[in-house]
Amino acid sequence: MAQLKAMSPSSLLNLPFHVPKTDSLLFHDRIYCSRRQPSFLQLGARASELNGHMIAIDSYKVNLAHKNQAIQAVLSSDKETESSGAINTSGLRGKLNKVVLAYSGGLDTSVIVPWLRENYGCEVVCFTADVGQGIKELEGLEQKAKASGACQLVVKDLKEEFVRDYIFPCLRAGAIYERKYLLGTSMARPVIAKAMVDVAKEVGADAVSHGCTGKGNDQVRFELTFFALNPDLNVVAPWREWNIRGREDAIEYAKKHNVPVPVTKKSIYSRDRNLWHLSHEGDILEDPAIEPKKDMYMMTVDPVDAPNEPEYVEIGIVAGLPVSVNGKVFSPASLLSELNEIGGRHGVGRVDLVENRLVGMKSRGVYETPGGTILYAAVRELETLTLDREMIQVKDSLALKYAELVYAGRWFDPLRESMDSFMEKITETTTGSVTLKLYKGSVSVTGRESTYSLYSQDISSFESGQIYNQADAAGFINLYGLAMRIRAMKAREMQGKDI
């Protein structure tokens, strides 16, 4: 008989948020179950209608248990385990009981499923995280996982957690890697890996697996998170073990093991998309001297084709974190979605950079981060009012290290967590609003205000003020420049001796 274990991420804040209707939010309402189920289990109830309840299914009975948590479901059955061909003996490379696989439904992860079963004699639980990559990438996963031989499919909506607990802390810290990269992929990997560890505990898995290659940063980001949250889990990285070397090898392996090859038009680019950004790598981008093609971009219009009239947008900020757009309060994920749409139509947020990968090589990538670019500009600008010179300098210096830790996959490192506490403290008065003008790819600040502003018009005015006496500057300059005068006097003295 079918049994279901229900799992939930962190509870969401109970605020009167405005939530726009976007494709990235539609998937939240679905429950995916692997293998054969009675037709009535294909539930069509909207998540909003359930008012934060958790669905639990046992022996085909539906119960509602009140939890202030999001809906998630994992379904398995004895018959399904048998039909999936679970192997009780050791595989070619050893024996594992059950493996949770980071699953996208693409060619690579589709062939990893039978490869794990063949080489480790294990059941495979496919896990997919919705971090805002879009509804099209999430459709049909149940059928694909089933056809590949997985015993379960687990889908979690992590969009709010991703933005609230990972993106916003980086935004507050001002973390930017190597002057330009806003860390889109770097922030997404730990939230996905954390969810995998949670799922492994729920389903009783003794191992986790991912489809990252041995040349990139993502393998490090996934595995450091696994180490930090459950060091007892085994980690299987097929790309570091198998003999598959490319797409043709993978297709041949899939056919040999009766795994349907995903019929999709292969992109010439390697892309990664989430609610924060869309990255592009590969093909002509591997030559840093070649300009990207116009049709490569997907989140932003060409600035040349953007509206001829600028658009003004006001960002409301509380304690260093954005809360509203043009006076409307949004949930974290909804706020970012709104700004992605606004920034995208004005061609905002395109970055073309050559970065130093953690593994030592350089790589070129092109990133589209429309909403994130607007938010970074807003938060940084408000800090010019609320932080003094020393605070800004120290914060900026720590932001470099913060970004480096995130890029390197050390999200759960005590150092980053300690730095995050500092960032939270130093920005507690960064509250107010910033108005920006968006025009043909550019973001410019037109106004900023805060009740905690350290700016005083009376003191800063060129007109005479009561607090600042310009005559005092002479003594200040004499003391501030004393070391320079002494050095110059000593140099002149030494020159006289040489003569």
- The CATH class label of the largest domain is Alpha Beta
Q: What is the average of the pLDDT values?
A: 84
Q: How is the CATH topology of the largest domain named?
A: Rossmann fold
Which regions contain 5 or more consecutive residues with pLDDT less than 50?
Answer: 1-87
From the alpha carbons, calculate the radius of gyration and give it in angstroms.
27 Å
Largest sheet: 5 strands, parallel
Portion of residues in helices? 25-40%
Identify the overall geometry. elongated
Q: Report the CATH superfamily of the largest domain.
A: HUPs
- Could you give the order of strands across the largest sheet? 7-6-5-8-9
Number of DSSP strand runs: 18
The end-to-end distance, rounded to whole angstroms, is 101 Å
Question: DSSP strand (E) fraction?
Answer: 15-25%
Count every helix, treating DSSP H or I runs of 4 or more residues as helices: 16
Number of domains: 3
Secondary structure category? alpha+beta
Question: What's the CATH architecture of the largest domain?
Answer: 3-Layer(aba) Sandwich
Protein name: argininosuccinate synthase
EC number: 6.3.4.5
GO biological process, one term: urea cycle
Keywords: Amino-acid biosynthesis, Arginine biosynthesis, ATP-binding, Ligase, Nucleotide-binding
